[in-house]
Amino acid sequence: MLIRTLGNQNTILDQYISEIRDVQIQQDSLRFRRNMERIGEIFAYEISKELSYQTRQVTTSLGLADVPVLTDYPVIATILRAGLPLHHGMLNVFDKSSNAFVTAYRLYNKNGTFDIKVEYASCPDIEDKVLILTDPMLATGLSMHLCHKELLNNGKPVHTHFVSILASAEGVEYMKRKFKGSKSTLWVGAIDAELTAQAYIVPGLGDAGDLAFGSKH
Question: 12-36, pLDDT tens digit by residue?
Fold first, then answer.
């Protein structure tokens, strides 16, 4: 597995990450969703550099132009519900892509521990496709791993790009262990050092799903 960290390079991505972290700006859920979407567009652009292209001759009003175009669009998958704005940003760039959705949540036990429950996946055929799986927060890495495993019921992708805006160092190490030797890349905006006993990233940004769509019971 390759690890690509896009943040802390003095680009506009850092501005968007600073805003989704900021407790004052977070109060505007519309801006929070839009920043997540714009971050998704940046990740999609960077991933597009890793895809396959072929030259196509295009007829303009004044002549012919040879232009590289994608040979095959990736399948874009997301973990509901927090990943939807990030997914939308990806889809703005890969506008011809097929889409997949997975539901996963934390089921808390009486002793304070939790299990990740994957309930449902809607996915096209991903055999020999490039798969992009997005989740804005990579805490322990378990959700990403289990959701990817669920998607594999629909075929084996030729390469998987995992995308998270914020990740914990522990989550990154977990992904490196689980996907060692696989044809995969983990893309993150920033890596935070701390993960609490409740598996929340610190400093992180809070609950991305609640900030985007409102609190839940």
Answer: 999 999 999 999 999 999 999 999 9
Which amino acid appears at position 145 of this protein? H
Q: What ranges in the chain are assigned the alpha helix state H?
A: 12-21, 29-48, 84-93, 142-151, 169-178, 208-213
Using only C-alpha atoms, what is the Rg of the chain? 18
Longest CA pairwise span in the chain (Å): 71
- Helix (H/G/I), strand (E/B), else coil: 25: helix
User: What are the residue ranges of helices labelled H in 54-186?
Assistant: 84-93, 142-151, 169-178
Across-strand partners of 2?
Answer: 185
What per-residue confidence (pLDDT) applies to 193? 92
Structure tokens at 209: 């799903």
Q: What is the pLDDT of residues 43-79, one digit of tens each?
A: 999 999 999 999 999 999 999 999 999 999 999 999 9
